[in-house]
Amino acid sequence: MQEITSPSFFIGKDNPDLISFGSGQPDLPPPDEAFDILPTYRDFKYGLVQGMLKLRETLASQYSGANAESFVVTNGASEALDLSLRALASPKAKVMLPRPYYYSYPFNVRFAGMESVFYDLEKGKINFENLKNNLEGVKIILINSPSNPTGTIQDIETLKKIEKIAKEKNIYIISDEVYKDLIYERENYLIQGENVLTINSFSKTYAMCGFRIGYVYARRKEIIKKIIELKTHTSMNTNILGQEMALAAMRVPTIFLEDQRLIWRKRRDLIYDGLKSLGLDLWNPEGAFYVFPKIKNPQKVMHDLYYKYKLIVYNGAWFGAPERIRLSYALSEEKIKEGLKRIKKYLEKEDFKN
User: Fold this and answer.
1) CATH of segment(s) 7-29+254-349
2) What is the pairing mode between strands 325-328 and 290-291?
3) pTM of the predicted model, to two decimals?
4) How far apart are CA 73 and CA 56, in angstroms?
5) Domain 32-249, second-level architecture
6) What confidence tens digit (pLDDT) does each residue in 1-59 have?
């Protein structure tokens, strides 16, 4: 058996017998409107490095006071984050990350030539006093709300305090909001300020992961200019067909997003209640589509579930939480129920519950 040491082992794996609680890839289809342009689309030339103007204009309409020049359309949120960090990079600078964190964050920081430091979440929430007291040498604070992997959202009062202290100390905020349309408890709160870069994507809201359409929104023109220059010498323009389909997807009525939230909430309840009934310790997600239960020896659990039960979960150590596993519930209710049955069988044979 091959040792599983990275999420890359699982990404793209699929067969009829496999239940995957791994990758955060919606099984719901993109809106039909996204496909309407395909029969007649014939433009296959290079596009603007900054992104298609009409798409940027439409994005700007969703952000108060924004304009098309404030956006760069990227190859998913991953490139948006990578370019943003490199645009802000300076030698020996520190980037403050939440812990648990999305597994790519520390790598992105290292690739930008900076150092990761961490603010530890408490039951998935930011303790502002702890964050405030550890800002020495920090150039960037990264916020991820709703969070991957915790599924928690940050309190608006806390986010406003971070806005204020970041402004006072001239610290940049990168706000990763790819799950902003998948919140069950309240509307999303957009972090404000001239020093804020907002990261988003069409992957989760519109179930368009493979199209790789994301964007970064920044108020400072010099930051946008630097991101464009970096992108010019790396990936150049983002997929132009994907951008056209993303623009078409944005024309769907709001009921489309509301209906999707109801589906995600029902699945959240199903997997949360199921795991709690198995005796696992976890908090109830407020957004996104992940649960993050505690379990003994997550590496062994992950290996056993995959090789013996044909079930994928992710080791919490990849997210900075070595006492947990992450499960995505971006799959059908039928598969969630079957996956819970397999976990139950495993736990009945092993003693891995905390």
Assistant:
1) 3.90.1150.10
2) antiparallel
3) 0.94
4) 8
5) 3-Layer(aba) Sandwich (3.40)
6) 899 999 999 988 878 899 999 988 899 999 999 998 898 888 889 999 999 999 999 99
Q: Kindly write down the DSSP assignment for every residue of 72-108, as one continuous string.
A: EEEEHHHHHHHHHHHHH--TT-EEEEEES--TTHHHH
Per the listing, tokens 């949360």 go with 272
CA–CA gap between residue 200 and residue 89 (Å, rounded): 20
At residue 13, the pLDDT reads: 81
Q: What is the pLDDT of residue 344?
A: 96
**32-249 has the same fold as 7-29+254-349:** no
Residue 197's H or E segment, with its range, is strand 196-201
Residue 229: CB atoms within 10 A of its CB come to: 13
Distance CA 216, CA 121 (A): 25
| Tokens encoding 181 | 């349309």
Of 215, 340, 203, 193, whose CA–CA distance to 280 is shortest? 340
pLDDT under 50: residue ranges of the chain: none
Residue with tokens 């992105």: 108
How distant is the alpha carbon of residue 136 from its chain centre?
A: 27
Cis before 16? omega within 30: no
Residue 326 parent element (H or E): strand 325-328
Q: Domain ranges for the chain, please list them.
A: 7-29+254-349, 32-249
